[in-house]
From TrEMBL:
Keywords: DNA-binding, Transcription, Transcription regulation. The keyword Transcription applies. This is Helix-turn-helix domain-containing protein. The lineage of its organism: Bacteria, Bacillati, Bacillota, Bacilli, Bacillales. It comes from the Bacteria. PANTHER family: ARAC-FAMILY TRANSCRIPTIONAL REGULATOR, HTH-TYPE TRANSCRIPTIONAL REGULATOR EXSA. GO terms for molecular function: DNA-binding transcription factor activity; sequence-specific DNA binding.
Amino acid sequence: MIQESLRINKILDLNKWKRLQDSLATVTKLAILTVDYKGNPVTSHSSCQAFCQNVRKDPELLPYCQKCDSRGGLEAVRLNAPYVYLCHFNIVDIAIPITIDDKYIGAVMAGQVKLSDPENGKDLEQIVTSMNKSSHHIKANNLKEYYDNIPTMTYEEVIKISNMLFLLCNYIIEEALNKNLLVEMFEKAAGNDEGINISTILPGYTIKNIESIKKEMTNAIAEAFLKNSNDSNVWTNSVLKPAGDYIYNHKSENISLTHMATLCHISPSYFSRLFAKETGENFSSYLARLKVKWAKQLLEVTDMPIAQISDELGFNEPGYFIKTFKKFEEITPALYRKYYKENQIEKEETALPSFYGPHPFLREIIKQ
């Protein structure tokens, strides 16, 4: 049996994890669900597609979905890597194992997308096929409108996103575990009326190391989230393209118009004219608006302090960041986060119960 301390719901704050999961689902266009080592959901689904919702409501089709989950999960555990496969309706799904010291503690089940370049995914395994293909075909036709609305992405995008989720999820889990172990050590030392000496409890660590753990975790989330956000340079003027690419790839820098003009090999005045024609506003206003947009994403998905978000997005100091944010949103960053979280809690409380039952994968592993 897995030790109680390694249960995923003991390691993570599941409310915060669900907010991150929701944001990742929005950014990646994938439906995402987190399960424990038994295959039982520990979160509700994020962005579940209407087609898959209706398929899982059908008592004849649901077992096929569960078999896909089971086989996909087993393969992911065996490989200790993301396993990308096709479900019984040829929709792409991903099983992402979460492990600590080679111990399996849960998984992130993602997917519900179609390939825009199916020729590149010809090696993907359809791990379950229907025993009654004619019935399957009829049911699929009845849901064709929903099926046509399933988002598409390239095979390369699917692989990159699955690897990103694998690294991000396991990093966050490991850092959360490290933090929990540190807290446990200090509580034990304090309970024994011992003088807490970090050098004897954890050689090589300092109080500063411990204080930086949360910052490192939020930095990792910020970096992964912003780098994989679904916005990108959409400017049509090829002369401005180097500047646009630089802005989107260097979100933490305080970028100047002069530097952008140099990258484009034109004068600052000519850059300003081209930029205003392309975007409809001046450079400083556009950049500020864009950074406020990214700030809102970080406020929604992380508990990162306002000062740290300011630093992550290249503002000179927090006061200027707050002033800029308020200019565009008419409230401060702190109030934006407060209202956003209250709204999310209200949505969760009024949401209908999920119709998803326990995912049966790994039953063969956990039988005792």
